Amino acid sequence: MRFKLDENLGRRAAGIFRDASHDVTTVREQGFQGGDDAALYDLCREESRCLVTVDLDFSNVLRFPPAPTAGIAVLRPGGKATLEALATLSSQMVQMLENEPLAGRLWIVEPGRLRIHQAPDSDA
């Protein structure tokens, strides 16, 4: 899969995704730090990349609908967002990708838990 890691995720998290053979770019690598959330959302859509972030703004499905995206994943460490906690959640997310589709969905990744939001199926 193709991912874009937000500026709040470091090289360690990027390495976890790359070690699992995912195509990863980061906001820092693209010089997009401090960029507008809406512009980042649009950039991820244009590049067909799933956004991985700790920014809770991206969990607002009315402002950032996941349906037209490659997916949005918000990591929620449950305490301080330490490098270790974010690396653990990144590893957990990589494992979950083996069993759950992410495209068009919002994932909230918490320690030992995955919450998924997806648009209602039009065929249901």
Describe the structure.
This protein has 124 residues and is α/β, with parallel strands linked by helices. The protein contains three helices and six strands. It has a six-stranded mixed sheet with strand order 2-1-3-4-5-6, sandwiched between helices. The chain starts with a strand and ends in a 6-residue tail after the last strand.
Structural key phrases:
6 strands; Rossmann fold; alpha/beta
Largest sheet features: 6 strands, mixed
Assign the structural class, choosing from mainly alpha, mainly beta, alpha/beta, alpha+beta, or little secondary structure.
Answer: alpha/beta
The figure for the number of domains is 1
Number of helices: 3
| Backbone shape | globular
Approximate helicity band: 25-40%
What's the short story on this structure?
With 124 residues, the protein is of the alpha/beta class. The protein has helices spanning 11-19, 37-47, 83-96, and strands spanning 2-5, 23-26, 50-53, 72-75, 105-110, 113-118.
